[in-house]
Specification:
With 626 residues, this protein is α+β, with helices and mostly antiparallel strands. It contains 17 helices and 21 strands. It has a 6-stranded mixed beta sheet. Strands 5, 8, 9, 10 and 11 form a 5-stranded mixed beta sheet that branches. A two-stranded antiparallel sheet has the order 3-4.
Length: 626
């Protein structure tokens, strides 16, 4: 969530913290005055230092690499014979009872009954030797284990794809590290959601309907904290909020749709990391991903206990629904999910057809009956490996998205650019599959002349810009690993140097900014982060990724509202600006589209307060309930 700009306060980090401490609040953004004839005044947002308040555990030589734990790979109603339970390797860290680690803390309060259950101690010798508790819906401690394990696995996937520790989009009081609070029994509600104001994931529980399907009891209790997909979905909302705070501002129909679709994609691709589930699904579908319901369905138990014979959602779009901005956010998001999965399925078939030819003597036509065990195994291994690649592609693309006003077509451009940067040679046509799948669903980005790769890739600066020598990697300080900044003051220093560069009067337009006045606020550096990506040939690419935004206050008869512009700035390790992915603050057509959306189909996601239209509080609570 974007933090308020606040009043003018001292420009040094120490002074800023002192003023904030005296107020008993989090530090306000730092503000830099204009430099005559050169730089306009600019801000450094509170999210810059916040990136240093996350401190994942640094493994010691004597530590184990993983903590084996058992989880439900889908939900509590799935058959163990189809991989419904798996032993997963959670990155090791010492834990306090809860569990409470460096990044996550599990709350033991039952919000419905107002009682506290026994805290799970995963470092207890009796629990350790059994690889954690056995999966069961009846032991509240297993609910704690489930949410901790799945959230840790998803966090590890993001960290691996981006090559850095990920910060949250909220800030806790005090000086300690920010932890996401996990509430596995949040209360009696047919819902689960990320509360960005409180910095917590809330998992409700409810009684199933009288008409249920699958292995479910009519009127029995259903716990969303035991659904792998729901837990993965909700923690992805929190991670995406930390990566892009303005993606919580419903300025157009695509913003919330992307949040929902991205969270669904992470949950679905995580399915493929569980070997037994993949093998069971491909055995039943005879190697066809489109028929592998175990893999493509999302939140199966939730759907089966709320009156449907189907999962809550699916990656397969049987009717080939096309892009329509009038769709409800989950429905519009499902168009993006089906496009990405379509690309995934296309590449999977390309990479496995040779195995099918070998297994069929060159005909490529599978005989009746079950596939051979060897073919099942090789298909499952290929699907798991490819899903891991697609998940990383999706996550890396977020760094290449504009900071505000995201559209689904922007995500395609981000994917194509990020993947080309890392894998210029694309022998299996990954990027071609993405482009074709998006085109079939009429998800077209604006401002491109063709659907060719070179047209879709973001371009560099429109004119030659000098390097920012102070942001050369030789001049940056890290805490041992380039994925970990030295401290908050180093991040503040980097943001200051970037701010001075982009806020230069001669360069404002390059970054989608304008001179501040009564309507337009000061440019604001929202974040600056390192990125380390490892390519298929072992090459390592380093970048700095930053967000710069600017607020424009619009007065209307219905009340005032904020319109944002700015850019994502990607710098190479030598301080060269590689990409400026911008959304101009002066873009009048985008402003008009936002106004029409806010006062029309997007009105439920905004509220009026003191003559201003602002995003609704607990947005995901409302969105998921609806």
């Amino acid at each position: 969530m974007a933090e308020p700009s606040g009043a003018l306060i001292p420009s040094t980090p120490a002074a800023s913290a002192a003023v904030a401490q005296s107020r008993g609040a989090a530090p306000e953004p730092d503000e830099f005055p204009a430099e005559p004839g050169a730089t306009v005044p600019f801000l450094i947002g509170g999210g810059v230092r916040r990136a240093a308040r996350i401190a994942p555990y640094e493994r010691k030589k004597s530590d184990p690499i993983y903590r084996p734990l058992r989880i439900y790979t889908l939900d509590a109603a799935e058959s163990r014979l189809e991989g419904g339970v798996a032993l997963v390797n959670v990155p090791y860290e010492p834990l306090e009872p809860g569990p409470r680690g460096a990044v996550f803390e599990v709350d033991n309060l039952d919000g419905g009954q107002n009682l506290r259950y026994q805290r799970l101690d995963l470092d207890d010798p009796g629990v350790l030797i059994r690889n954690g508790l056995a999966p069961t819906p009846t032991d509240p401690r297993f609910h704690q284990q489930m949410v901790y394990a799945v959230c840790s696995l998803v966090y590890a996937s993001f960290k691996s794809a981006l090559g850095r520790d990920l910060a949250w989009g909220f800030k806790r009081a005090g000086t300690g590290p920010d932890r996401l609070l996990l509430r596995p029994y949040g209360g009696p509600e047919e819902n689960a959601f990320y509360d960005q104001q409180a910095g917590e994931l809330h998992f409700g529980y409810f009684q199933a309907s009288a008409e249920v399907h699958g292995r479910n009891l009519p009127g029995g209790f259903v716990f969303t904290s035991l659904s792998h997909d729901i837990v993965a979905h909700e923690v992805t909302h929190a991670l995406l909020d930390g990566l892009r705070s303005h993606f919580n501002r419903p300025s157009n129909p695509d913003v919330l749709a992307f949040h929902e679709a991205f969270a669904d994609l992470v949950a679905i691709f995580q399915h493929f990391s569980y070997k037994e589930v993949v093998q069971a699904a491909l055995r039943k579908s005879r190697g066809r991903l489109a028929n592998a319901d175990l893999l493509t369905g999302l939140a199966r138990q939730f759907g089966h206990t709320t009156g449907s014979e189907r999962p809550l959602r699916s990656a397969i779009d049987e009717t080939l629904r096309v892009y329509d901005p009038g769709l409800e956010p989950h429905e519009l998001g499902s168009v993006l999910v089906s496009a990405v999965f379509d690309a995934f399925d296309t590449v999977f078939r390309r990479k496995t057809e040779r195995y099918v030819r070998l297994a069929t003597g060159g005909s490529g036509v599978l005989p009746e009956g079950e596939l051979s065990a060897d073919l099942q195994l090789v298909l499952a291994e290929e699907a798991s490996r490819l899903a891991s690649q697609f998940l990383a592609i999706c996550i890396r693309a977020v760094d290449y998205c504009p900071p505000v006003g995201l559209e689904l077509g922007h995500f395609l451009r981000a994917v194509i650019t990020a993947d080309f940067d890392l894998v210029p040679h694309d022998p299996w046509g990954y990027r071609e599959a993405w482009i074709d799948a998006f085109a079939r669903r009429r998800i077209f980005p604006g401002s491109v002349t063709t659907l060719s790769e070179d047209s879709l890739r973001w371009s560099g600066p429109a004119r030659e810009l000098p390097r920012i020598e102070d942001l050369n990697f030789a001049n940056l300080r890290f805490r041992g690993d380039p994925g970990r900044p030295a401290d908050g003051e180093e991040l503040w220093r980097q943001a200051r140097d970037l701010g001075r560069f982009v806020a230069h009067r001669d360069r404002l337009e390059d970054f989608g900014l304008a001179e501040p006045d009564d309507e337009v606020g000061r440019p604001r550096v929202e974040s600056i982060r390192s990125s380390r990506r490892v390519g298929p040939d072992g090459q390592v690419a380093f970048d700095l990724v930053a967000e710069v935004t600017q607020r424009r206050t619009i007065m209307t008869a219905e009340g005032s509202f904020d319109f944002y512009g700015g850019s994502t700035v990607i710098l190479g390790p030598d301080g060269e600006i590689r990409y400026i992915i911008r959304k101009s603050i002066g873009q009048e057509d985008r402003l008009q589209e936002q106004r029409e959306y806010m006062l029309g189909p997007g009105r439920p996601y905004w509220r009026s307060t003191e003559g201003r239209l602002v995003p609704a509080e607990k947005l995901f609570h409302m969105l998921h309930r609806g």
